[in-house]
Amino acid sequence: MAKKAKTPSADPHAGKTPLVEMRDISIAFGGIKAVDHASCDLHAGEVVALLGHNGAGKSTLIKILSGAYTRDSGQIYVEGSEATITNPRQAKDYGIETIYQTLALADNVDAAANLYLGRELLTPWRTLDDSAMEAETRKVMGRLNPNFTRFKDPVKQLSGGQRQSVAIARAIHFNARILIMDEPTAALGPAETKQVGELTHQLKEEGIGIFLISHDIEDVFDLADRVVVMKNGAIVGSAQTGDVTKDEVLGMIILGKCPPGAIPGPGALAA
Ligand SMILES: Nc1ncnc2c1ncn2[C@@H]1O[C@H](COP(=O)(O)OP(=O)(O)OP(=O)(O)O)[C@@H](O)[C@H]1O
Ligand SMILES: [Mg+2]
Q: If both were cysteines, with which of 96, 148, 167, 248 could 259 make a disulfide (CB 3.0 to 4.6 Å apart)?
């Protein structure tokens, strides 16, 4: 149960350098300020949910972090050092991986082939080293989802949750430290959603930081340590999930009203 707080509770990461920090980020498309002086951070082992109405700027902010868009202004810091991120390759070099709702898996091949898509392992004779790739895949999947056994099946035959774990395995296999998930459970049933929840806990244990974009307030309260709400491109506020109620978060999303348990941002309605 979320307890009501009159003021935000103590920052559990006080004094620690965030894994990633976006500072004063702006981008406009034509005349529209899609992201307007937005700042937010993410710590190791933390799940931060980005919330807001359609068009609030969530995906755009996250695409700036993943290198899909180049910001007009503002800075990105990774573990305290300013990062140059102007394309997806650079973002990956900083350990930033994104899982889009579409998952972008190759449907006709198995989990191992998906993990190594474009980065295949070769034998000394320059042929595909299928057994090495499968062995590595079993290791990664064993860590993430020990119940997964369908290593020989093309991924199109897997359930939504199993496909999701293959996509996550691919993202973290190459040393992702910062994982961005845009609507990871939107197309999943309850059992599969639960599986993604378990995966998320596992990733947290490993110290991976996760930005989660979701419209599902129940999911958010189940999975996230903190919520960051956007409206019209600006940050309304940020709150630890224990410091605010679901209704208060809905008030942030709909009205831009910042409750006492949240730290207001530049997009908060003037009190
Ligand atoms: N490539 C683009 N060209 C022009 N306008 C864009 C582009 N990408 C986003 N926008 C605009 O920027 C604003 C923010 O869009 P964004 O996709 O970031 O919203 P969102 O919060 O992710 O919404 P949703 O919940 O619907 O996914 C919107 O007004 C959108 O129309
Ligand atoms: Mg979006």
A: 248
Between the CA of 108 and the centroid of ligand 2 the distance, in Å, is 28
Asked whether 35 lines ligand 1 (CB < 6 A), one says no
Q: Which of 213, 216, 242 is nearest to 228 (CA)?
A: 213
262 CA to centre of own chain = 21
Backbone angles phi, psi at 214, to 5 degrees: -155, 145
Q: Higher pLDDT residue, 175 or 236? A: 236
- Comparing CA positions, the residue from 38, 36, 40, 1 lying closest to residue 18 is 40
CA distances from 243 to 63, 86, 204, 261 (A): 28, 36, 20, 5
Report how far residue 45's alpha carbon sits from residue 19's, in angstroms, rounded to the nearest whole number.
Answer: 9
* CA of residue 122 to ligand 2 center, whole Å: 38
Question: What average pLDDT does range 243-255 have in this prediction?
Answer: 96
256 Cβ below 6 A of ligand 1: no
Write the residue with the smallest CA distance to atom 11 of ligand 1.
Answer: 34
